[in-house]
Amino acid sequence: MSKIEVRHIILFAVAFILQFTVIRFIEILHWRPDLILIVLVSFSLRKGPNWGMTAGFISGLLQDLISAQILGLTALAKTMAGFIAGILSGKLAVRTEYFLVLLISGFFHDLIYFFFYTIGEDFSLRSLIIFYTIPNLLYTVIIGGVLYYFFETILAES
Amino acid sequence: MNKILGLFGQRRTILILVLYLLLSFLFMATNDPFILRGMRIAILQGIGWVSSAKNYLKYRQDLEEENKILRKKLLEISLANQKLQEQLLENLRLRRLLKFKEESNFSYIPATVIGIGQEQTIRSLILNVGSADGVVKNQTVVTEQGLVGKILIVEPHESVTQILMDQNSLVSVRLQKSREIGVIGWTGNLWLDLNYIPRDVVVEPGEVVLTSGLSRLYPRGIKIGIVAEVAEVEYELFKSIKVKPAVNFNNLEEVFILFVQDSLLTGKQSREQN
Fold this sequence. Notes:
CATH architecture of the domain at 108-273 in chain B: Beta Barrel
Strand order of the largest sheet of chain B: 1-2-5-4-3-12
Mean pLDDT of chain A: 84
Distance between the termini of chain A: 12 Å
CATH superfamily of the domain at 108-273 in chain B: Rod shape-determining protein MreC, domain 1
Low-confidence stretches of chain B: 262-274
Radius of gyration of chain A: 15 Å
Strand content of chain B: 25-35%
Number of helices of chain A: 6
CATH topology of the domain at 108-273 in chain B: Thrombin, subunit H
Number of domains of chain A: 1
Helix content of chain A: over 70%
Oligomer: heterodimer
């Protein structure tokens, strides 16, 4: 196992702990950043779609198990997010790559999640996207932007 | 299609994606509450263990800190308690001495034992009073328990007392019941030896031994000890009597020195009475 993988595993573990403990304290009107998605995008960009999907599936499944959601739903969304981030790796301008990939994969992540979440329910998917997904995604990108420089520092050494 | 596959890189990627998507859908479709519950319990237990380990470490750290503080407090309290106990004992001793002083007809100078004499040949105590306080040689030294000895050496601010349990110390005594007179001395044992009590005199253990007042040194009627053991040796004229000293010479702290004039006066009175 390479250094970059080991460091990403540590980052995933830290992201999990923070996501389920302190993240509720920085919640704004029910909008929360997805720290696991932030780490997943960073990992997929470096390791490609295969690793990205695997990391997305495992982390999503664990998230489902911990958060008592429908088992497999976050796994599906995170698998897709990891896959999209992986295939977009190296195809965008370096300077904006991380933010754009986070935005795109995050959007698909939330879209898939809420699509399956609201099947058979009397929810408006469009309203969910406008009032929940987009603000949530923007919040995630802002936090991701802050953490990006931190990731760059600790991952650049490996 | 080839373009799409080219975008995806390899077919393996598609296969992995399909596999993960199928697995996700499978999980979503089944969602067996029993299995789910088991898996969730296992995951949450794992998280719980990590959390307990973290709490345990914090708890241990807090305990160590608390232990340090409590130890410090315990030491402080223990020292304060020792001081209080010391003061209580001193208070009790002084009360006894005061009572003794009030009940007695003699005049006294109170003194504190500040040391044990270092001379090889004399067993003695050093007192914190001397000629500047009116102390003179041969004055009698007592406690509320009985006779301690006599002043042997006088310095301006301290004096040396020769105690009863010294081989050179001999005191004229009287048995309280039989009124017989003997001489008491020390031969290196835990007891004092009472000599010159004739064989025909009835002496029983427990009888009190007092100063006779016949000598010019010690006033009459000061307790010396009690008879502990009486023995008669064949062909000996006198009984062999062991006397347990009234004073415990090992824990003496405060004593009184009798005024010389009083002791002489009492001695004269006792001689007149005898």
